[in-house]
Amino acid sequence: MSTSQMVMYDEEFQEINAVIERLLKDSNSKVIFLVDKNGQLISGVGETERFDTTSLASLTAGNIAATGGLAKLIGEKEFSILFHEGEKDNLHISIVGGRVILVVLFDNRSSLGLVRLRVKKSSEELSTIFEKLMKKSEEQAKSGNSSFPFAEITDDDIDNLFS
Fold first, then answer.
1. Do 130 and 97 meet the contact criterion of CB atoms below 8 Å apart?
2. Of 5, 46, 71, 87, which sees the most CB atoms within 10 A?
3. Domain residue ranges of the chain, discontinuous segments joined by +
4. With contact defined as beta carbons under 8 Å apart, do 81 and 113 qualify?
């Protein structure tokens, strides 16, 4: 995937939320978060109010980075799926489209098999949305279109803001 900066547009954000809300229902999960690999929360659905979402997003990205290091040590590119089993709750963490992290928290009302099955389908849908979003961002940036968010902000503007 391209390394260009991604800008989230409302249309794609709504599509992403629809996919993860459907995943929440279909997998009988408690909460689902979508996090970028830099540790920024993109979206969350379900019982999100009981979590420190900033910490969860940062720790999830750190977990992916750490296991990526382990993967390289043993000759793998990455571990695309992680599973953590607790006494009451379980975490299923997967990398979607090489760019974002899908976190599914579920308990004994669901099963790992059901979660994995539903995550696979949702991951394909999310990958398509993120590919479309990246193309849209790249096209806006290349066209120099003034409707591109932050296009009029320069480095000097940012320096002046913080000086």
1. yes
2. 46
3. 10-161
4. no
89 touches 12 (CB < 8 A): no
Can you read off the two tokens belonging to residue 21?
A: 């809300």
Whether domain 10-161 has CATH 3.30.450.30: the reply is: yes
Q: What is the rounded distance in angstroms from the CA atom of residue 35 to the CA atom of residue 95? A: 10
The whole-number pLDDT of residue 148 equals 52
CA–chain centroid gap for 21, Å, is 14
Please give the distance of CA 96 from its chain centroid, rounded to a whole number.
7
Laid out side by side, the sheet with 90-96 consists of: 41-46, 31-36, 100-106, 90-96, 81-85
Burial degree of 20 (CB within 10 A; 0-12, 13-18, 19+): buried
80-109: per-residue pLDDT in tens?
899 999 999 999 999 998 889 999 999 999
Low-confidence ranges of the chain (pLDDT < 70): 1-6, 144-152
Q: Is the pTM of this model over 0.90?
A: no
Question: DSSP 3-state assignment of 23?
Answer: helix
**β-strand partners of 104:** 32, 92
